[in-house]
Amino acid sequence: MNYQVNKKGYYGEFGGAYIPEMMHPNIEELQQRYMEIINSYNFRQDFIHLLKHYVGRPSPLYFAKRLSEKYGSNIYLKREDLNHTGSHKINNTIGQILLAKSLNKKRIIAETGAGQHGVATATVCALMGMKCIVYMGALDVERQAPNVKKMKMLGAEVIPAVSGNQTLKDATNEAMRDWINNPEDTHYIIGSVVGPHPYPDMVTQFQAVISEEIKMQLDEHIGREFPTRVIACVGGGSNAAGAFYHFLENESVELIGVEAAGKGVETKETAATLTLGKVGVLHSAKSMLMQTEDGQIVEPYSISAGLDYPGIGPLHAHLFQTKRARYLWATDEEVLESALELTQLEGIIPALESAHALAALKKIKLQPDEVTVVNLSGRGDKDMETYLNYFGY
Amino acid sequence: MSTQNRINQLFQSKKDNILSVYFTAGYPNLDDTATIIQTLEKNGVDLIEIGMPFSDPVADGPVIQNSSTVALKNGMSIKKLFQQLTSIRQSVKIPLILMGYLNPVIQFGVEEFCKKCKEVGIDGLILPDLPLSVYEEEYQALFEQYGLHNVLLITPQTSEARIRQIDEASNGFIYMVSSSSTTGAKDKVSDFHQEYFERVNQLELKNPRLIGFGISNHETFANACKYASGAIIGSAFVKALEQEISLEERISRFVNRIVNPV
Ligand SMILES: Cc1ncc(COP(=O)(O)O)c(C=O)c1O
C-alpha cells in the first residue's frame, strides 16, 4: 500500500487542489517549490535548530506508570504538551514561517479555532519579525479570550470572522478570502493537514518529527522502534498525521485516530467526520465531510474547540478507506473523565483535544505485553475554565 | 445539440456592451427565481448567471455570502432550483448560466446535474472551485455531451501561458476578474488594471471576454466595456434587491442606472 501523496496531490481518491483561479499562482508556487525548499540543507539546519533550542524538542516519551498499571498494559505518552506554546501546532508554524521567508513573503495569515494554532503562528511571526493576521470565528473570540489576548500581546492582529456560524470553518473561509485579495506578498499558514495540495503533505512533513522521535525514544526505552499501537486525536488530523507518519509502512503497528463525538454520534451535536461524513469538496480538497443531502456543510460540535471542524485531512480519509488506520470516537463526557484520570494518576492536565486520545484507552482491549503510545498533543491550560465548571472545583 | 449554444449566438450577434447579471437563487425570497430572470430579460440584460447558494462561498464577498445564507435558510437547493426552472424556456430566450461551488453539484450527482441543465435549457456553468486541470480530466467530456459551456476565470496574476491554456479549454467566453479579489470589492475606476486588460486584448484569444468583480454603476460598467465585450454585475445587483419596492421595479431601476449615464 502507498500512503504518500502522489504528484497531483492525492492520497488515493482524496486531496487535490480545488482552488479558485485567484489562488492559482500562490498554490502553484508552493506545489512546485515546497519539496525542494524543505529538503534543502539550509532549511533542515534552521528547522532542526529552532525545534531544538526554541521549541524544546525532542519532547519526552514518558512511560506513564500508574496509568499503565490501571489498564494492565504499557502506555507511553508523547509529550507534545511540553512544547513551547503548549501543543504540537508549533512544529508546523516553525516549518511554514521558514518556508514563507524562503518565498520572500512579507505578511502571514492564519485561521484558528481554539487559538492554539493562532498563538503558535503569532509566536513564530514575533520571532521572525513578520506581520501576522489571525482569523478567528467571532464566537471563538468570545469563548477563547485568553488566547486572543496572547495573540495580541505577541503583536498579531486578530480579526473576528462574522460569517456563517462564526467558528473554525468560517475563520478558514475568511483566511482564504484574505489570500485571494492579497495575492502577491502573503503566505497562508494553514493549521492542520487540510486545504489544497501541497498543504496536507507539507504539514505532515513538519509534524512527522513526532513519530521520528517516538521511534528513537522507544528504542531507548524497550529496545525496539515499533509499538503495538499509536493513538492520537483527530480534528483536521495534523498531530495524528505526525504521530503515524513513520509507522505507516509498518503494518504491524496499529494506528488509531479518535474523533470528537460531542454529545454523541447519534445526535446533531457531534464532529465525528469519518464516522458520519460523505465524500465532498471543502476548503479546496476532496475528503470526507459532514454535510447535508444537498451538499451544504454542517456545523460540527465538540466541547473542544480544536476538533470541531466539519472536514478531515485527505490522508486520514485515505487511511480510513484503506483500513490502514482505525477511527474511534469519544463523547464530551468520556473525554472529561479521561482528562481527570490522567491529571490525578500522572499529574498531567491534558488539552481537551488530547483527552480524546486518552479516552480511547477504555475502548480497546489492552494486553499486558503490548506497548501503546498516546500522542498527548497539548496541555490543558487553555481548558481550565471548562474543567473547573464541569468538575466544580 | 441541434441548435447552437445561446452563449455563442449572443457573442456573434453582439460585440460590445454586453450586460451580464448575477443573482443568488432563493434570494430575497425562495420563489423569486423566475420573476428575476424574466424581468432582467425584459429590461435588456443579455446574459444571466443564476447563483446556486453554498454554505461556504470562499470566492465571494459579504454581499453574496449574505444572500447565500438567506437563500439557504429560505430552503433553496439545486433540486428546488431545477423545479423552478422547469418551464423557464417558454418565456426566456437569453443565455442562462448556473454559477456555484462544486460540492452541492457533486452531491446532486454530476451527470444527473448536467442532464437536468440540458433539460431546462441551461447554456453554461461557472464553478469557481473547479480548476482547469480537474475540469479537463474529469468534467469536460460530460459537460460537452450535454452542451454546457464551462466558463473559466483569469486574473491579473494569470500568466500568459495559462491564459492560452484557458482559452484553448473554453468555448463560450472567458471571465476576466478585474483584480484578484473576492466578489463585490472596490468600485473605483482607478482600481482597474488597465495594463492587464490591454495585455490580454493583445493576445488575440479565440474567446471573447467579459469583465467581472467590482462593477457597480454606469461608470465602472462603461469603463469595463472599453476593454472587453461587456461586463458582469453581481454584488451590486444583489444589494439593489434589498429595497422596499416591488421586485420588478427594483430590477428595472437598477438596469437603467447601469446602462444609462446619470
Ligand atoms: C492540543 C490540540 N490537539 C489537537 C488539535 C487538533 O488539530 P489536529 O487534528 O490538526 O492535530 C488541536 C487544534 O487546535 C489542539 O490544539
Features:
heterodimer; A: 393 residues; alpha/beta; Rossmann fold; 2 domains; six-stranded mixed sheet; four-stranded parallel sheet; 16 helices; 14 strands; globular; B: 262 residues; TIM Barrel; nine-stranded parallel sheet; 12 helices; 45% helix; binds pyridoxal-5'-phosphate; EC 4.2.1.20 (chain A); Trp_synth_beta (chain A)
Describe this structure in words.
Chain B: It is an enzyme of class 4 (lyase). The complex is a heterodimer of chains A (393) and B (262). With 393 residues, chain A is an alpha/beta fold. Chain A has helices at 24-38, 41-55, 65-71, 89-102, 116-128, 138-143, 145-153, 168-181, 199-207, 209-222, 238-244, 273-276, 314-321, 332-346, 352-359, 384-391, and strands at 10-11, 14-15, 61-63, 74-79, 107-112, 131-137, 157-161, 186-188, 229-233, 254-262, 278-282, 285-289, 325-331, 371-376. Chain A folds into two domains: 18-50 and 89-203, Rossmann fold, CATH 3.40.50.1100; 56-86 and 207-391, Rossmann fold. Chain A is built from 16 helices and 14 strands. In chain A, helix 10 crosses helix 11. With 262 residues, chain B is α/β, with parallel strands linked by helices. Chain B has a domain at 15-151 and 215-221 and 230-259: TIM Barrel, CATH 3.20.20.70. Chain B contains twelve helices and nine strands. In chain B, strands 5-4-3-2-1-9-8-7-6 form a nine-stranded parallel β-sheet. The longest helix of chain B is centred in the middle third of the chain and has 14 residues, at 132-145. The interface between A and B is large, with 34 and 42 residues. Bound molecules: pyridoxal-5'-phosphate. Pyridoxal-5'-phosphate binds next to helix 5, helix 11 and helix 15 of chain A.
Detail the topology: elements first, then pairings:
The complex is a heterodimer of chains A (393) and B (262).
Chain A: E1 10-11, E2 14-15, H1 24-38, H2 41-55, E3 61-63, H3 65-71, E4 74-79, H4 89-102, E5 107-112, H5 116-128, E6 131-137, H6 138-143, H7 145-153, E7 157-161, H8 168-181, E8 186-188, H9 199-207, H10 209-222, E9 229-233, H11 238-244, E10 254-262, H12 273-276, E11 278-282, E12 285-289, H13 314-321, E13 325-331, H14 332-346, H15 352-359, E14 371-376, H16 384-391
Parallel strand pairs in A: 4-14, 5-6, 5-8, 6-7, 9-10, 9-14, 10-13
Antiparallel strand pairs in A: 1-2, 3-4, 11-12
Helix pairs in contact in A: 2-4, 4-5, 4-9, 5-7, 9-11, 10-11, 14-15
Chain B: H1 6-13, E1 18-24, H2 33-42, E2 47-52, H3 62-74, H4 78-85, E3 96-100, H5 102-108, H6 110-120, E4 124-126, H7 132-145, E5 149-150, E6 153-154, H8 160-169, E7 174-177, H9 194-201, E8 209-212, H10 218-227, E9 230-233, H11 235-240, H12 247-259
Parallel strand pairs in B: 1-2, 1-9, 2-3, 3-4, 4-5, 6-7, 7-8, 8-9
Residues 87, 113-114, 116-117, 192, 233-239, 306-307, 351, 353-354, 377-378 of chain A line the site of pyridoxal-5'-phosphate.
Function (chain A): The beta subunit is responsible for the synthesis of L-tryptophan from indole and L-serine.
Cofactor (chain A): pyridoxal 5'-phosphate
Modified residues (N6-(pyridoxal phosphate)lysine) (chain A): 89
